[in-house]
Specification:
The chain is of the alpha+beta class. The chain has 2 domains: about 120 residues, no CATH class; about 150 residues, Rossmann fold (3-Layer(aba) Sandwich), CATH 3.40.50.410. About 30% of the residues lie in helices and about 25% in strands. Helix 5 links the parallel strand 11 and strand 12.
Length: about 325
């Protein structure tokens, strides 16, 4: 009898504990990873630095933390994206098509690149201001017609001189209105530009044209880099300062570009600046862009992306891509 009562008491206590646990669990927010479409752009070059064009989806393996990913779309340069079938073959996508049931975006948004130019108009740029403006204007005129471009300027504050547009004349008018300012809050301006770019679907890049030193920002460069990594936005930097004069800025610029899939150029003269912009334009025109929905992955932190070439036995080709991202958390 005593044994039966003891079992009854234990059962009652267990039920009470389970009920309490259920109440507490219901009160706690449940965090889940929000699975968004990943947009990944990269270039492939040979051992002499020449671009490799004409590759197909089957030539690549995209992995996150070693987990193979299934491509949704594939495109080269500024060409319209193609849908990647289960067989690995591709087919055109009807204009305006998307995948709203999976949080997809219109395919029209994946055509071309959204280019955000962040122009340093602080007092550090007084001497080369006119030449820098001319180099930026030449770059804008030479972009592919499918590309959209915005021009932001910064000194202490950010000025959205020309909103994102494919109308080159409107963008150039905004650029011509830029005036030189005072102190440089480069990382503040870069963070705001990245936030704007993140709202735009499809492929985007930010190009920073700066003399280098930051004298007024409230945010740290590594915090800005983390935002660019997670949003998948490559940062290209053209610095007009001497490579060895400001080693701190030099190191930051190189880290920003390397960790986001961009590049850094040091260009003191107008000619070198023009060449740097041309190199960026070449990168954009010779890159591959893929999209995919990440496969199940328990990693809620930084996920490493790797792009492997299926047919490169001699390891003579080099892929340049961002190293990874952190998935968004939803409640």
């Amino acid at each position: 009898m005593k044994k039966r009562n003891k079992i009854l008491i234990l059962t009652t206590l267990l039920a009470a504990v389970l009920a309490l646990a259920g109440v507490l669990a219901a009160q706690q927010p449940v965090f889940r990873i929000k699975v968004d479409m990943v947009v990944l752009s990269f270039t492939v070059t040979d051992n002499r630095g020449r671009y490799i064009n004409g590759l197909k989806p089957g030539d690549f393996r995209i992995l996150e933390d070693g987990i193979p990913q299934k491509l949704t779309t594939f495109s080269e340069g500024s060409r319209p994206p193609l849908r990647v079938l289960d067989s690995g073959a591709t087919e055109p996508i009807a204009a305006g098509a998307g995948e709203p049931e999976r949080g997809g975006i219109s395919t029209d948004a994946l055509v071309g690149t959204n280019v955000f130019v962040l122009f340093d108009t602080s007092n550090y740029m007084y001497r080369g201001f006119v030449y820098a403006s001319d180099a930026i204007a030449d770059f804008i005129r030479g972009l592919d017609r499918a590309d959209s471009v915005a021009v932001y300027t910064f000194s202490r504050n950010l000025n959205r001189a020309a909103p994102l547009s494919r109308e080159r004349n409107e963008v150039l008018q905004g650029l011509r209105k830029a005036v030189a300012g005072d102190e440089a809050a480069l990382y503040n301006g870069l963070l705001l530009a990245l936030r704007d770019a993140a709202k735009v679907p499809g492929r985007k890049v930010v190009i920073v044209f700066s003399n280098g030193p930051d004298s007024a920002s409230m945010v740290a460069p590594d915090d800005v880099r983390a935002v660019a990594e997670d949003e998948g936005i490559p940062i290209y930097v053209i610095s007009t300062s001497d490579l060895n004069r400001d080693p701190i800025s030099t190191g930051v610029f190189r880290r920003l570009s390397a960790r986001t899939g961009g590049k850094t150029f040091f260009a003191k003269t107008w000619q070198k600046q023009v060449e740097a912009f041309e190199a960026i334009r070449e990168d954009l025109g010779n890159s591959y862009t893929v999209t995919y929905y990440p496969q199940p992955n328990p990693n809620e932190g930084f996920r490493r992306i790797s792009v492997e070439l299926a047919n490169d036995p001699g390891k003579k080709m080099r892929v340049s891509a961002r190293p990874g991202y952190r998935p968004r958390m939803g409640s």
